[in-house]
Amino acid sequence: MEMETGINCAHCKQEVNGRYCPNCGDTVIVKRVDAHYVIHEIQHFLHFEKGIPYTIKELILRPGKSVREFVRVNRNRLVKPILFLIVTSLIYTWMTHLFHAEVVETPEMIRIRETALGAIFDWVQSHYGYANILMGLSIALWLKLFFGKYDYNFFEILILLCFLIGVGMLIFSVFFMAGALLHVDLSNVSVIFGIGYCVWGIGQFFDAKKAVNYLMALIAYLLGMIIFWIVAVAVGITIDLINHAV
What we know:
- By secondary structure, this protein is mainly α.
- The protein has helices spanning about 35-45, 50-60, 65-70, 80-100, 105-115, 115-125, 130-145, 155-180, 185-205, 210-245; strands at about 5-10, 15.
- Helix 2 packs across helix 3.
- Mean pLDDT is about 80; it is low at about 1-5.
């Protein structure tokens, strides 16, 4: 196909007489989004070598080493961390809706739901992906404090948590589905397994050979969760007090 000439690059405004800009390398003519493009993107996302299945497999078998390689060596083999966390959180949300059991709300529960504090709780339950990112920020701060001697910055630690919490959401999903099918409450078991997995992954990430790292990881993780919920409750109560005062 004959290429158009005299086109200016949309990025750097350089005049281009071919498919690619000779100055910045950008593609001059971008193909339109069509069915082929959408199918290709879905296949790429689900591809076993670089997509969600491969990422889950690597994070289950060797979480610390896989994330360490992502941070320092190769960022193309695993799914992007924030995307991974949002997708796994959506899977958990979908699973809870699919196997949702009817809950009889007491008058006290109804009253709380009508407050700002109740609205915050509802938002967390409806937006686990974003809530997990916020919780990850809190946990990352404590991990940076506890593991400051290691050469990892705050954002690298946050990437670690996005991957680990994402797998944690899948663990919760499996236990939730199993509990619904067996008609038993496995929520406490899922929390133990979920937190245990995250602690294991954090310890591996920093130094798998040091037992104290797993203890520090557990303490930092629990402190991060507690601080997150303290802040959430404090914000809700503060808003309610302001509303009552107005």
